[in-house]
């Protein structure tokens, strides 16, 4: 494990989960699983003294350092980071907003491929998360299960014979497992079927969050589906509920809606997505909401074969890299909101004009 | 339209699709939307605990509830009142100390009271031994504070002993199928080979 807080390399590249590959990646952006774990010999975070937190951070770090094949893991002391670097890790989805904004001793261990990270002193002492591109929950589960095995070989977890893994919030007790799939559903939004689809899924123990919901002038069309319960079912069952049962049905509805849109008027749709690409690649200043809105359209256009010269991986990367902290890291200095709008437009232009490939720097 | 939380224009209109009373639309400025969306997006059910905890009083008289609210965990000191208001527990022992008060809540949230998933390879022998460990650790911190390093190192050894014993205990009690060689999460790879 290496202590390292230089994120400039990280800022220029993008994580594996943004590749835009993997099963169903035209609709599924990413599959994420997290496990909540607590040490047996400390109070939960809310009742921890400052010394407790320091002690937890030290204990966990020392035990992680002893794990073989963890030499490449980057260990980041979040308390030491600047505000912009914390925001950067949040945008990158490597840490939560909650741990970024918290006080006191806290840290994150990050895999160099950004496929997993382990937060220390979040709501629970440990939050392990694995993130893969596309719909790939089974291998994400295998991965996180193995990681958890490694950690529990070194750390004594709080565990109850009857209730399973004990967590600070009773909504996480039992498996401590939360499976989340991020979906891009523009056609269901355009055809106004999205609410109907999700209403039909109520009462099957999943939570759906519209991230930039309908009715909005600027919509990103992204939705996150997660398991709601964590106790009383095995991890495999919970993974399967989301990955084999719920998500494939939503994908099918979205595909049908896309087919419908094409059959209704390919010219209109083609015009719409082409204009979106036009604005993104020629604007001289652009806000992040507007960027989200048009990138969503372009992403659908690429997946429907209406736009041919932009890779999905490029679009995915642009969603992240045009956010405030990323823009400032890439630019190398702090920028005010209106300067960011200019920088964002420049960045988009460079990446959409075909002069920079998806894997290349800057 | 203005943001629900401040005077800025609302540019984000977020629909929560899973509210119990049907979809709920929130109108927020960029800053508040960012805060809202990134607020622990990995555990969407977090607010449920607080809400349900507040509903606990339905089956109880004011007097019963007032008594329950004053009940405190002997290990971490959290009161049931504090838990009801934050939705967060104070330590692992709370699940034992508040067991009868938490069970209706757990049933409400999960429709179950029995974990049937993965088991750790090592686990503390009992809720009591976890409580003892937390208390010893507190004492150790206090000993360090008053620079009584001898006492602190005694406690450290004691903790180590409990931890080692714990691990052994659980495997002896067969909580721990991992020690027999396989993974403990499923039986798919076991035994049937010809
Ligand atoms: Zn606001
Ligand atoms: Zn307690």
From TrEMBL, chain A:
Residues 27-257 form the Phosphagen kinase C-terminal domain. GO terms for molecular function: ATP binding; creatine kinase activity. Keywords: ATP-binding, Kinase, Nucleotide-binding, Transferase. One of its GO terms (cellular component) is extracellular space. ATP binds at residues 30-34, 127, 178-182, 209-214. InterPro entries: Arg_Kinase (IPR023660), ATP-guanido_PTrfase (IPR000749), ATP-guanido_PTrfase_AS (IPR022415), ATP-guanido_PTrfase_cat (IPR022414), Gln_synth/guanido_kin_cat_dom (IPR014746). Its EC number is 2.7.3.-. GO terms for biological process: phosphocreatine biosynthetic process. Belongs to the ATP:guanido phosphotransferase family. This is Protein arginine kinase.
UniProtKB/TrEMBL annotation, chain B:
SUPFAM superfamilies: C-terminal UvrC-binding domain of UvrB (SSF46600). It holds the Pfam family UVR. Residues 130-165 form the UVR domain. Keywords: DNA damage, SOS response. One of its GO terms (biological process) is SOS response. InterPro entries: UVR_dom, UVR_dom_sf, YacH. GO terms for molecular function: cadmium ion binding; cobalt ion binding; copper ion binding; zinc ion binding. Residues 141-172 have a biased composition (Basic and acidic residues). The keyword Transcription does not apply. Residues 141-194 are annotated as: Disordered. Residues 178-194 have a biased composition (Low complexity). It comes from the Bacteria. Signal peptide: none annotated. This is UvrB/uvrC motif protein.
């Amino acid at each position: 494990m290496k202590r390292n807080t230089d994120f400039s390399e990280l800022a220029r590249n993008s994580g594996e989960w943004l590749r835009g590959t993997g099963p169903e990646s035209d609709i599924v952006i990413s599959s994420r699983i997290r496990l909540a774990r607590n040490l047996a010999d400390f109070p939960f975070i809310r009742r921890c003294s400052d010394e407790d937190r320091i002690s937890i951070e030290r204990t966990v770090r020392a035990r992680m350092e002893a794990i073989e094949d963890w030499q490449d893991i980057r260990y980041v002391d979040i308390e030491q980071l600047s505000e912009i670097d914390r925001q950067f890790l949040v945008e990158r989805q490597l840490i939560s907003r909650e741990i970024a904004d918290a006080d006191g001793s806290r840290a994150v261990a990050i895999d160099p491929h950004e496929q997993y990270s382990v937060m220390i002193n979040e709501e629970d002492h440990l939050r392990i998360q694995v993130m893969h591109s596309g719909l790939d929950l089974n291998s994400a589960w295998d991965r996180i299960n193995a990681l958890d095995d490694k950690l529990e070989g070194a750390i004594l977890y709080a565990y109850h014979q009857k209730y399973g893994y004990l967590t600070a919030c009773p909504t996480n007790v039992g498996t401590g497992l939360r499976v989340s799939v991020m979906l891009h559903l523009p056609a269901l939004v355009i055809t106004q079927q999205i609410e109907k689809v999700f209403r039909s899924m109520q009462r099957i123990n999943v939570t759906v969050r519209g991230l930039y919901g309908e009715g909005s002038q600027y919509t990103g069309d992204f939705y996150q589906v997660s398991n709601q319960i964590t106790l009383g079912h095995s991890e495999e069952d919970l993974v399967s509920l989301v990955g084999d049962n719920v998500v494939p049905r939503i994908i099918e509805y979205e595909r049908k809606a896309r087919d419908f849109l094409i059959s209704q008027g390919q010219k209109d749709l083609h015009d719409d997505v082409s204009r979106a690409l036009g604005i993104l690649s020629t604007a001289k200043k652009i806000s992040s909401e507007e960027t989200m809105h048009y990138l969503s359209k372009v992403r659908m256009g690429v997946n429907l074969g209406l736009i041919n010269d932009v890779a999905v991986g490029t679009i995915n990367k642009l969603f992240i890299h045009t956010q405030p902290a990323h823009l400032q890291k890439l630019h190398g200095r702090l920028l005010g909101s209106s300067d960011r709008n200019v920088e964002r437009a420049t960045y988009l232009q460079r990446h959409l004009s075909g002069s920079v490939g998806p894997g290349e720097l800057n | 339209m203005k943001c629900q939380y401040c005077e800025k224009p609302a540019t984000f209109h977020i629909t929560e699709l899973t509210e119990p009373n049907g979809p709920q639309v929130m109108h927020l400025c960029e800053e508040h939307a960012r805060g809202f969306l990134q607020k622990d997006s990995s555990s969407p059910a977090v607010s449920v605990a607080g809400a349900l905890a507040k509903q606990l009083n339905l089956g109880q008289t004011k007097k019963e509830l007032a008594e329950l609210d004053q009940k405190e965990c002997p290990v971490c000191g959290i009161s049931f009142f504090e838990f009801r208001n934050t939705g967060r527990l104070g330590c692992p022992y709370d699940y034992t100390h508040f067991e009868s008060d938490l069970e209706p809540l757990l049933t409400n949230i999960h429709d179950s009271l029995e974990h049937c998933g993965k088991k750790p390879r090592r686990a503390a022998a009992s809720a009591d031994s976890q409580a003892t460990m937390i208390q010893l650790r507190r004492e150790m911190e206090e000993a360090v504070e008053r620079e009584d390093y001898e006492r602190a190192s005694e406690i450290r050894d004691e903790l180590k002993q409990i931890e080692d014993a714990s691990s052994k205990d659980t495997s002896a009690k067969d909580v721990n199928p991992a020690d027999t060689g396989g993974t403990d999460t499923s039986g798919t790879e076991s035994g049937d080979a010809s």
